[in-house]
Each structure stands twice: as structure tokens, then as C-alpha cells.
Amino acid sequence: MTAALDSLSVWGLIFVIGAGIFAVRLSFIHVYTERSEIPPSIEKALKFVPIAIIAAIVFPDVIVIDGPLRGVGPIFDVLVSSRTIAAVIGVLVAYRTRNMLATVVLGMITLWTFQIFIG
């Protein structure tokens, strides 16, 4: 038997979780504003945060298990999906040109073209 949460309990839970997250972030800011500079090891690690965030957002959407060729095999489905092909083209364009607009435009054109032909 499960008990339903009432509105006050839900708002209390949201407040407690929010306060906890705020406290963790504030403690990090407080610790490093007391010092004059961030240690080099942490500064070096923070350079990889934007790359990790973009990868965490994009990667699950690129790897498609239920592709149009489901009967062939899971590895083949991932390699032949229109999202994977567009992602590879986008990575190549980004590496070659270092231009974000060209990467997005060519990646989307590739995605839409392959979605028409592959599905």
C-alpha cells in the first residue's frame, strides 16, 4: 500500500532538496573565494566540463538502439542510424573548420537528408 504525498509534503521536499543543492554550491564558492586563486589541478579539470556536458547531452540521443534495420543486429542499427551518420559528419566538420555555425548547419542537413532516405 502506497501513501500519496500531499501538496505540503511535495513542496517541503522540493525546498529541502533545493536548500541542499544551494548549500553545496555555496560551500564550493565560499572555499575558493577565501583563497586568492583556484589550484591548478582543479582549474585543469574544469576545462573539460563544457565538453563533458555537451557529450552527456548529445551522446544518448545519437546512439539509437531501435533503428530502421532492427532485424539485422544492434551494432549495425547504431552504425547505420541517421543520427550517428549526422553526428560523425558534425564532428568532422567541427574538427576541420572550428566553426560552430558550419557544424550545426551541415549536421542538420545531413540528419534531415539521411532521415528521408534511411528513416
Automatic annotation (TrEMBL):
Alphabetized, the UniProt keywords read:
Membrane, Transmembrane, Transmembrane helix
Report the protein name in the record: AzlD domain-containing protein
InterPro entries of this UniProt entry? Brnchd-chn_aa_trnsp_AzlD (IPR008407)
**The keyword RNA-binding is assigned to this record:** no
Q: Name one Pfam family in it.
A: AzlD
The transmembrane segments are 12-33, 45-65, 71-93, 100-118
